[in-house]
Design goal:
By secondary structure, this protein is an alpha/beta fold. The protein is 50% helix and 11% strand. It contains 17 helices and 10 strands. The strands form 2 sheets. A 7-stranded parallel sheet has the order 3-5-6-7-8-9-10. The protein starts with a helix and ends with a helix.
Length: 326
């Protein structure tokens, strides 16, 4: 069996995927036309050509602009469904995607519109594709904690439709502790919590995500490698890191894939997982991320299998379901 087939047949969970980041240029164009929006691009090739960024902020500026074509419940359904078809093709049996409500509510789209479109697609995937999912509501960290509280309130009528809250967007200057109270409130309401930390930000942000937000997982966390004491904690407590290799190289967290530390972390016993982050922007879905590790870091089949097992273990699935998949 070749490596692509081997990776595809491994049952995998995806734990770090921004639905807005799965908006492919072709669908962006289609939704723009459907909604009477004029894009600043002549065609699909021009959209792709505009994806020039070499840090997180430059990427985010383009990503938020792309999300403007999402307007109706059907748009959010189509976005989510297209992603789920990719999951099916690549052996992702369970996914825990993020959505960024503030990206949409701040431009006048109601929370109800987006949650209904996304949830309907996730439900249909369960019955038609055999893919299970838990949704994660992510707060934008460049906005205020007050705005995050308002978003959580707005979401409460739909509390059974998401399992966790997260924290994403511009990391530098927006440390986890800025959101300590809203995360405490979310936990008190019974939600799991995750946060992006240690992507561009320092190991100190990983420490504060753990100690001040009490998160269940760290999204990215690759810069923890710089801090031996933090590495030991991650290993001792088996705190999952949702690592996104193609994202990290596109945003120059690592200069080259051959510099990526994920397999070193894996071999040291850190609970690392492989994920695609924003696949429409970073050049690949989850299988392409595994393949990049094979091509640039000589990932072995045993390492690939362990990464896939980790993804199931690090998910929020009940233990019985985890065991039945692994
Ligand atoms: C993101 Cl790569 C990344 N980092 C932080 N926030 C994000 N939102 C979407 N992609
Ligand atoms: Zn992310």
């Amino acid at each position: 069996m070749n490596m692509t087939d081997f990776i595809t047949q491994l049952p995998k969970a995806e734990l770090h995927l921004h639905l807005e980041g799965s908006l492919e240029p072709a669908l962006m164009m289609q939704l723009a036309n459907r909604n009477g929006i004029t894009l600043p691009y002549a065609d699909i090739a021009a959209i792709k050509a505009a994806y020039q960024f070499s840090n997180l902020q430059d990427f985010l500026d383009i990503y938020y602009q792309g999300a403007n074509v999402l307007q109706t419940e059907q748009d959010f359904f189509d976005l989510t469904w297209a992603y789920l078809l990719r999951c099916k093709a690549q052996g992702v049996v369970h996914t825990e995607p993020f959505f960024d409500p503030q990206t949409h509510t701040d431009r006048g789209i109601s929370f109800k519109v987006l949650i209904k479109g996304i949830s309907a697609a996730l439900k249909q995937a369960e019955t038609e594709l055999g893919i299970s999912s838990y949704l994660i509501l992510s707060f934008l960290r460049h906005l205020s904690e007050e705005a995050a509280f308002e978003t959580l309130e707005m979401a409460m009528p739909y509390r059974d439709q998401f399992i966790a809250v997260g924290l994403d967007s511009s990391e530098m200057g927006h440390p986890p502790e800025k959101f300590q109270r809203v995360f405490a409130k979310a936990r008190a309401k019974g939600f799991k919590t995750v946060a992006h930390a240690g992507e561009e930000g320092p190991p100190a942000y990983v420490w504060s995500a753990l100690d001040q937000l009490n998160v269940d997982r760290i999204d990215h966390g690759v810069r923890a490698y710089e801090d031996a004491e933090l590495m030991q904690r991650l290993i001792d407590e088996q705190i999952p890191l949702t690592v996104c290799p193609l994202s990290n190289t596109r945003l120059k967290v690592f200069a080259d894939m051959s510099d990526h530390t994920i397999l070193k972390m894996l071999d040291q016993g850190v609970m690392v997982t492989v994920n695609s982050d924003d696949p429409a922007y970073f050049g690949g879905y989850v299988a392409e991320n595994y393949m990049a590790l094979y091509e640039s870091l000589a990932m072995s089949p045993a390492q690939a299998r362990q990464l896939a097992i980790n993804s199931i273990k690090a998910s929020f699935l009940p233990d019985e379901r985890k065991l039945s998949i692994i």
